Amino acid sequence: MKPRGLGATTIAMAVLNLGGFVGIPWDHRGVVAMVATVVLVGYAVLWYYWRGRNWARILVIVTSILAIGNLMVIIVLFAVDRLYSSSVLYHSVIVANAALGAFLLYWLNRKDVRVWFRRSEPSPRILL
Question: What is the C-alpha separation between 87 and 22, in angstroms, rounded?
């Protein structure tokens, strides 16, 4: 049985994944294409996360650490008055990602959740 909270965390990550489009220069096609690719890859990882693949859980943990680090960088840039973007929506997405990342670091490392992700791994098939 899927652990309680898997659906809520998946939906939260899916919504915040669209935050990648906040604050990008829409007139630069290359940047838009890169962000769209990263968002689509993120949705593929979320699919496997929902299905219980441990490698997807590990990628979510790494992304959570990066989200918290991103918030720390923004705080330092704000402190030294070199904040490169003054968009409230952009900063709200960063704070929301960091808050979700902090929760995910706790939740994904609980024993029952770790065990479920490890049990969900497909068994290796032997080809004869």
Answer: 9
